[in-house]
Amino acid sequence: MIIPTATLLVSCPDRPGLVAKIANFIYANGGNIIHADQHTDLTTNLFLTRIEWQLEGFNLPREVISTAFAAIAKPIEAHWQLHFSDSTPRLAIWVTKQNHCLLDLLWRQKAGELPAQIPLIISNHPNLQHIAQQFNIDFHHLSITKENKFEQEARQLELLKEYKIDLVVLAKYMQILSEDFVVQFPNIINIHHSFLPAFAGANPYQRAYERGVKIIGATAHYVTKDLDEGPIIEQEVTHISHRDTVKDLIRKGKDLERLVLARAVRLHLQNRVLVYGNRTVVFS
Amino acid sequence: MIIPTATLLVSCPDRPGLVAKIANFIYANGGNIIHADQHTDLTTNLFLTRIEWQLEGFNLPREVISTAFAAIAKPIEAHWQLHFSDSTPRLAIWVTKQNHCLLDLLWRQKAGELPAQIPLIISNHPNLQHIAQQFNIDFHHLSITKENKFEQEARQLELLKEYKIDLVVLAKYMQILSEDFVVQFPNIINIHHSFLPAFAGANPYQRAYERGVKIIGATAHYVTKDLDEGPIIEQEVTHISHRDTVKDLIRKGKDLERLVLARAVRLHLQNRVLVYGNRTVVFS
Amino acid sequence: MIIPTATLLVSCPDRPGLVAKIANFIYANGGNIIHADQHTDLTTNLFLTRIEWQLEGFNLPREVISTAFAAIAKPIEAHWQLHFSDSTPRLAIWVTKQNHCLLDLLWRQKAGELPAQIPLIISNHPNLQHIAQQFNIDFHHLSITKENKFEQEARQLELLKEYKIDLVVLAKYMQILSEDFVVQFPNIINIHHSFLPAFAGANPYQRAYERGVKIIGATAHYVTKDLDEGPIIEQEVTHISHRDTVKDLIRKGKDLERLVLARAVRLHLQNRVLVYGNRTVVFS
Amino acid sequence: MIIPTATLLVSCPDRPGLVAKIANFIYANGGNIIHADQHTDLTTNLFLTRIEWQLEGFNLPREVISTAFAAIAKPIEAHWQLHFSDSTPRLAIWVTKQNHCLLDLLWRQKAGELPAQIPLIISNHPNLQHIAQQFNIDFHHLSITKENKFEQEARQLELLKEYKIDLVVLAKYMQILSEDFVVQFPNIINIHHSFLPAFAGANPYQRAYERGVKIIGATAHYVTKDLDEGPIIEQEVTHISHRDTVKDLIRKGKDLERLVLARAVRLHLQNRVLVYGNRTVVFS
């Protein structure tokens, strides 16, 4: 049997006693820490930590942990999140026509690798509807044009609300989200098919081929208003040679894309990623 | 200016409150933690931690930190080590005829990558004496035969004592140390030219070639009485193809060997490696 | 439009003039070579080559190419195979209960990455029958016991004949094939969940964990009568840390297994693999 | 004993019969081919090949091979080079203040990994003169300012002529060569400390840190008049984490730089690199 845990992600200005203060809060209430990791960014004097403890034997009821910790967090000017391992986040996957990232995420969710529910798939094309049906997931086809983008984004936001979505995963969704959308729903992970910042923008494989690089890559990052500029969660690369055509790059890249995206989503779902500035700390 | 730090490496049976207990010890005495990492091995119920704090502003004089921490360590049945970042360990490098690992370690030490002094090189052959001279390091040639092994090991132990050596690095020392030697001087890192446990023992590149593997590797591990069976610190591999002859494997392997050995020695010198059973935790 | 090609895989004792002889055969008959690669194993004095040319404009009808080339092959004592790119090989995939390699191969076949038909899935358990149905592939459940192994293998051979199977892929088929079976049907690729020769045999992830390695891997190889000893086609590895439990190794290993198996099957289907002795040349 | 070989690197418009034509030339004159590799770039319809044969038993004297092959090359409009394995190219290494790439190349040359002579080191700073002395290599200190750049480049060209240099290796030479210089001496390999095209230009490690990438790299390329835009020979990368400061990136990058540069120089010296357009074919 898996014992449920609570996880705190905390960032605040560095000062002596932070580790002790947070550990004491958990210990004083009878919690057993099973994972504690900490990082100090000396260039910004920022303290960042992830601390996870078993709820069994913890004296505070779940409902009051937040209030109790807020009393500690306030004087140290902390940003913090509290997560419980048994409250499963809800994912929406957005796609266009390519199925490899979608299928990979769905397979991993079924295999127990992704601690999440996936009640919603959104696409600007109808092509992948049969996959949604096969996995018994609601599929919404919202085609996007220059003219209707604004209203379609409104509809998308409604759907995210309706389905109580916690995280949007852009699994090869070949559309740019408006700044306004990202402000209203900031929890979005995207997969970009290059080792950013190389070949940001469109057609990275074609451009990689033309430049004659010997390595291609993929990047999973949080979406911000600046295209392809959000905080990077995970990257991976593979070697290529002169024998590889653009078509080969695309094929090899698919393996990178699904691997990198799945890793990033898993790390996020396990509350292992802390964003600060345009960077991430990944407590893996 | 680099502020000196103290580092505690602690392992003990897991129980609630360990993180708080150790963090409190440091905080109560005015220390600022700059690195804290922790691991719980649930299969053996063992708690392992590395905690590093700045000595500036720490209220306890260095001489009494050990005594003070012992009072905490005893009731929790902890094994522990205390290290100061400004007390530089002393290394002896042992070699036979190949120079690549030796030169690499010496270059890195000069470049500031290895926080250690290297006052002593021991070899069972005279071939690399000129390198010792060039780097102004004492070189002792102790040839080994079946007959003289016992007395030569006694002489080696004397030298380690005389030069106040903290760590022996076997940088392609092609001799097996006796069980007795290892018991008397247990701080030894070896580089093995295969991705152990594959091709343990002699001639790994020849055997890798004969088996037709597509990947070769190197392994840095602590030396124990069981040959090639000690706790692994670091491993790295590289792809090979049918075009690679045994000579090519040896050439490519040299790059792996020097990289892996240097990484392992650096991790050890930064007190990032904790051994338990036949395994290591590497707090990197 | 893709122009069909013919591919010759040839191995013979090395002597001057082999490249010229084979290239002339193709040129004299009007063929345009689009890929020619060659390897000489100097330890065994063996010449190995892969040569692929466009059939368009080639003067010899397909039916007579074999006869014509035999006249060249005989005096040079060559072993050789002739393949046409538009005659699609037929695969049987054998599984037990795990679905990741099976799904991956089926997805790649649908995506056009594997130039093969897959008319048959055989399993010693009924668990994955629904996947076969979903992909519209015949599924045969043949449970194996000590007592019935002999007759079930006879039945399996019948099925391979009936379905005109060219290649069997053991996609996590957790049974050992008898020597007799392998002699009668030698075209078998297996995926082993370790970087062979490390952890040959059962439970490699458990044993990798116990040994405390820092790297795990997977190996695709041809099956021979000696278990886990056949010629290696492809290997891949990934780094692990002390944080990874056996369950994590299994999860990470799945990604390696499906990647390595898919690469090996693709290389085989493109006629890029030549076996000699217990080794392979991979003309990639 | 190593038998000397001749190597032809040929590129020309693709047409049927090219492999046969070149192989016949060698066979007809009694040569034994030990390496033949070929690539057809279908996007540009270009045929590129590398063919190496033993000179022992070859009927043409060395002096006439060029003339003889020219008769074949002309009608097929080929660009081609002829190299003999026993005529050792002469390298000049250019440095500024960092020694890691220089030492690595010198060590490899001594270890027999680089088939070249290294008679000349040029630097715009005097710092590394002692290394030149130690290896008994002429060292020329030519400081560069905006004002004297033109005349210093003239002096550099004189030195390359005087020392009969075949290849210049920029081993962390932190100066940009003028377009005019590159036109007059086009055989130059540079190491750039990023996975180009990411972070082209100055301070790549600082910029990689600021962007928060999870992978850093190094790139060896031929120098052209367009800074950091020349044909790429080799690239390699390594993973980093939030724990790595800019200083750590620089340290880890050094290992990449020396590995990638050494590989590229070795490939070039073995005549395995063919440039076409802004791309390379590497026959490895």
Structural features:
32% helix; Rossmann fold; 284 residues; 30% strand; Alpha-Beta Plaits; alpha/beta; four-stranded antiparallel β-sheet; homotetramer; seven-stranded mixed β-sheet
Mean pLDDT of chain A: 96
Count of strand segments of chain A: 13
| Total number of domains of chain A | 2
Shape of chain A: globular
Into which percent range does the helicity of residues of chain A fall?
A: 25-40%
Cα-atom Rg of chain A, whole angstroms? 21 Å
**CATH architecture identity of the largest domain in chain A:** 3-Layer(aba) Sandwich
Distance between the termini of chain A: 23 Å
Strand arrangement across the biggest beta sheet of chain A: 7-6-5-8-9-10-11
Outline the secondary-structure elements.
The structure is a homotetramer of 284-residue chains.
Chain A: E1 5-13, H1 18-28, E2 32-41, E3 46-54, H2 62-73, E4 79-84, E5 90-95, H3 100-110, E6 117-123, H4 129-134, E7 138-141, H5 149-162, E8 167-170, H6 179-184, E9 188-192, H7 204-211, E10 215-222, E11 232-239, H8 246-269, E12 273-276, E13 279-282
Parallel strand pairs in A: 5-6, 5-8, 6-7, 8-9
Antiparallel strand pairs in A: 1-3, 1-4, 2-3, 9-10, 10-11, 12-13
Helix pairs in contact in A: 3-8, 7-8
Folded structure, characterized:
4 copies of one chain form a homotetramer. Chain A is α/β, with parallel strands linked by helices and 284 residues long. Chain A folds into 2 domains: 5-84, Alpha-Beta Plaits (2-Layer Sandwich), CATH 3.30.70; 90-282, 3-Layer(aba) Sandwich (Rossmann fold). Chain A is built from 8 helices and 13 strands. Chain A has a 7-stranded mixed sheet. Chain A has a 4-stranded antiparallel sheet with strand order 2-3-1-4, with helices on one face. In chain A, helix 6 links the parallel strand 8 (167-170) and strand 9 (188-192). In chain A, helix 7 crosses helix 8. The longest helix of chain A has 24 residues, at 246-269. The model of chain A has no long low-confidence stretch (mean pLDDT 96). Chains in contact: A-B, A-C, A-D, B-C, B-D, C-D. Chains A and B meet through helix 1 and strand 2 of A and helix 1 and strand 2 of B.
